[in-house]
Design brief:
With about 450 residues, this protein is of the alpha/beta class. The chain folds into two domains: about 130 residues, Urease, subunit C, domain 1; about 300 residues, Metal-dependent hydrolases (TIM Barrel, Alpha-Beta Barrel). It is built from 14 helices and 18 strands. The strands form three sheets. Strands 1, 2, 3, 4, 5, 15, 16, 17 and 18 form a nine-stranded mixed β-sheet that branches. A five-stranded parallel β-sheet has the order 10-11-12-13-14. Helix 4 runs parallel beside helix 5. It binds zinc ion (ZN). The site of zinc ion (ZN) has 6 residues, from loops.
Amino acid sequence: MLIRNARVLTFDSAHRVLDCGTVEILADGSIGEVTDTRRSDSPGLPLNHQPAREWNTPGNEVLDARGKLLMPALINCHTHLYSTLARGISLPGRAPGNFPEILKKLWWRLDRALNLDDVYYSALVGLIDSAKCGVGTLVDHHSSPNACTGSLDQIEQAFRKVGLRGVLCYETSDRNGTASAAEGISENIRFLQRHRKGVGDELVAASFGLHASFTLSDRTLRRCVEANQSLRAGFHVHVAEDRCDVDDAWRRYHKSPVRRLRALGILDDHSIAAHCVHVNTTDIAALAGLQINVVHNPQSNCNNAVGTAPLLEMVRHGVLVGLGSDGYTPSMWEEFKAAFHMQKVRNGDPRVAFSEAYAAALLNNRTIARKIWGWEIGRIETGARADLLLVDYYPPTALNNSNLFGHFLFGIANAPVDSLIVNGRYVLRGKECVTVDEREVAAKAALQARSLWNRF
Ligand SMILES: [Zn+2]
């Protein structure tokens, strides 16, 4: 397959922007040649004089992008697909007034009510929403304590159905008792034995999921480390999201959550530490030293009023910080904007956060995906996976590799996603999901949600 006549943001080693490029997609789902067409086979031919038709030949499709913007598909490094069917749910009684109350009154009630069908439809809807926002890869963190065993298979099935790339894990926690924690560990082991690393054309990979320091005993954490010894997977855990996690770790273990988890062998260069809102300078130095992957989730942090993460301080100290949505939104552009805006407010300085927000959304997420799961995504370069996003964006001002930030913030983030290709296959085409019938899925999900809300 060939995509021609596209304005290509390559994110290759030279960060080339091709005003009129051609990108070849090979049958194995990788990127073949990337050509600056204007410079080679059609010198001087203006964009609007390129042929506007599109045609198919068996096995050799040529898509005329007609000057649309082609860039790497977006990556969401921390989300909870199981939250999708909570949309519009009402909570009985007094509204939760802090983070522990939000967990108890909403999320821990919802996850206990989920059955395996709910898990499947939550994932399916969440993935369709993500595809429509140009997200090709999601790192999910799942919990359904009363439908634990086999739940990751349901989510995997949804990923394969929609055709997105994903990393799955089960949220081990002691909050529902030791038997439930043991079942969570088993679900991680079972799934990891099949999917530890998603190299090459493999769409699904796995991590070892843990909730957070404040709902995990030393005993359970040691069991997880022991179980993971032969699997050698990275852990995916919430760290210092709210002050309550920090207070709990100091009260019970006389150290911060970062130092506690590090001492137990949870944190390493293959682990994801989501949030890290309440980390001090000692913690930040430890995170940098461990080469851990921190994932910032600004909108969720705002919504839960837990605080703003010290993004600039972490980056300054050499911590790799990616970006996630924590289930709050399918749109990574929203998170990109929130990260940028919140750091300006946090620091009281309009000059900051340009490079940090840009790096988190567009560079660090792909670094995390390559480092942990071996995926070559997030760039349009020969040999990388063909995870591509075609956007209806025709820049009204000069666009080059030195001013992408302004175009992302004020233009591309607001432009309609036309098509999404993952691993060389269309997921979205002409703004329609081509792998599943979105309306049919929504109708089935609505029935599922009605029954879920009755059990809630
Ligand atoms: Zn989370």
